[in-house]
Design goal:
CATH superfamily of the largest domain: Glycosyl hydrolase domain, family 43
Number of strands: 34
Largest sheet: 6 strands, antiparallel
Strand order of the largest sheet: 23-34-25-30-31-32
Mean pLDDT: 96
Shape: globular
CATH class of the largest domain: Mainly Beta
Number of domains: 2
Distance between the termini: 53 Å
CATH architecture of the largest domain: 5 Propeller
Strand content: over 45%
Structural class: mainly beta
Oligomer: single chain
Helix content: under 10%
CATH topology of the largest domain: Tachylectin-2, Chain A
Number of helices: 1
Length: 500
């Protein structure tokens, strides 16, 4: 039989091809006002959890939950970026697309590891068994995909096809690491309204043996612990996870969901016992953190710099979601200390003039420190500060309508991040307790076009939140009220783009 030219058909494009085409088609529609200059964000479309953070062949790879077709959550793909220095990033082709029997409705969160000369992704394949969104009718399995070049991945299907108990439906977010001759995998699971963390081990990433539940929740611990991570630091075990369903209490756990940790010990029976749950970040937007053991031994962590059901004005700009800065974790007694990754100093451009100490009541403009991509060091002299506020205002508009406040409240003895006038849609305060005997509070503040991240220079806390001011709101001010106390900006820099 002879075929005419009309009978010849182009090969059907793959799911990955369609996703890449959607990204390319979406790029011209993206509005740049809120686009971060040095944080990881999707080229277009939606981003949430960091999926796999891994060091492979001399480069850092960060994968993330991604929906390339619209700036909203949908069937999850895995976006992909890489960096040689933790500072300058480039986008790579989308790594995973849903559509097979085992991941038909989403390639949910997971992790990445290096096995010999192969980069392996271990992720949750998600399938709706009823109506989309009916969480009582779902199937979640743990899947494997591998790559030789770190760009193109081959799926191997489900490697853990059933949860430890038949009644468990929510079973996701595998985190994998190697210890001695075994690979270990911890995942989040939900039995009714009780969170559980099953632990598995394997010799080859394909066949997994269930060991036991590392930990489970009780009254007040929420109903699901997402994105668990278990690692050793300074001779202690740290259990990091993102609980859903915990209730707020006072100033604690004010976000819809949280990310936090417990410091303790994993015994020979695979059971973790430890101290209380402590939030890793106290800002408005920080979730689904995942760590990486860097080649030099540092424990690095990334998180989604957003929160479910929070305002997301950038959706109207055809993109949504970003990751926080890479951070270093250290264990200080029974708490984690968090610091911006030391490599980030490479973003600094020429230093900006600082300010002397200032403590007069009112506000003082700092015209030499101005912009939407800045690192600002702030010192607060708290000696004699017994009432009023002491701090700075950033992203200030000329007319005074927009500003984001960061100040010490002497009555509450708390450092407050106030975004009630921080731009489109966002509002609310977050804060951390400050030791009343502390005389000097030294802060590092990172501003990007739609975010602020505040770090205590001694690593005791961080506050991370999204902001959506007008592009022209670029001013910085010192502020003081009440009696006693002084504020200064000893150092500041404009920051360069982090994209290659």
């Amino acid at each position: 039989m002879t075929m005419s030219s009309n009978d010849i058909r182009e090969p059907m494009p793959s799911c990955l091809d369609l996703a890449q085409r959607a990204l390319s088609d979406g790029l011209p529609r993206v509005i740049q006002d809120y686009r971060p200059g040095y944080h990881i964000a999707p080229p277009a479309g939606w981003m949430n959890d960091p999926n796999g953070v891994v060091y492979f062949r001399g480069e850092y790879h960060v994968f993330y939950q991604h929906y390339p077709f619209e700036a909203k959550w949908g069937p999850m793909y895995w976006g992909h970026a890489k960096s040689a220095d933790l500072v300058h990033w480039q986008h790579l082709p989308i790594a995973l697309a849903p559509g097979d029997d085992f991941d038909r409705d989403g390639c949910f969160s997971g992790s990445a590891v290096v096995c010999g000369d192969t980069l392996a992704l271990i992720y949750t394949g998600h399938t709706w068994l009823g109506e989309v969104g009916d969480e009582h009718l779902i199937r979640q399995v743990q899947c494997l995909a591998t790559s030789i070049d770190g760009i193109r991945f081959v799926k191997h299907g489900a490697v853990i096809e059933t949860a430890p108990q038949d009644t468990i439906k929510h079973f996701r977010d595998p985190k994998v690491w190697k210890e001695n001759d075994y690979w270990y995998l911890i995942a989040g699971a939900r039995l009714g309204d009780m969170p559980l963390l099953p632990l598995y081990r394997s010799t080859d990433l394909h066949v997994w043996e269930f060991l036991d539940y590392v930990a489970g929740g009780g009254e007040g611990d929420g109903y699901m612990w997402e994105c668990p991570d278990l690692f050793r630091l300074n001779g202690h075990d740290v259990l990091l996870y993102s609980p859903q369903g915990m209730h707020c209490e006072g100033y604690e756990r004010l976000n819809k969901y949280q990310t936090g940790y417990r410091v303790g010990r994993l015994d020979n029976e695979w059971h973790f016992t430890g101290g209380p749950f402590i939030e890793l970040d106290n800002g408005h937007d920080f979730y689904a953190a995942q760590t990486l053991l860097a080649p030099d031994g540092r424990r690095l962590v990334w998180a989604w710099l957003d929160m479910w059901e929070s305002p997301m004005p950038s959706q109207a700009h055809h993109w949504c979601g970003m990751l926080g800065l890479p951070r270093e974790l250290e264990l200080c007694a029974d708490r984690l200390c968090v610091f911006p990754a030391r490599e980030l100093t490479a973003l600094r451009e020429e230093p900006l003039p600082g300010t002397p100490w200032w403590g007069e009541s009112g506000t003082r403009e700092v015209p030499d420190v101005n912009g939407n991509m800045l690192e600002i060091h702030v010192h607060l002299d708290l000696l004699g500060c017994t009432d009023g506020h002491l701090g700075i205002a950033v992203r200030c508009s000329d007319d005074g309508h927009e500003q984001t406040l960061l100040y010490y409240d002497a009555v509450l003895q708390r450092l407050v991040l106030d975004r009630s006038r921080s731009g489109a849609q966002v509002t609310g305060q977050r804060s951390v307790s400050i030791d009343p005997t502390q005389e000097l509070l030294a802060l590092r503040v990172f501003l990007d076009r739609s975010s602020i991240e505040v770090f205590d220079e001694n690593g005791r806390f961080s506050l991370s939140s999204r902001l959506y001011p007008q592009p022209g709101s670029l001013g910085v001010k010192l502020l003081a009220s009440g009696s006693g106390g002084r504020v200064s900006i000893p150092r500041a820099w404009s920051l360069a783009s982090g994209w290659l």
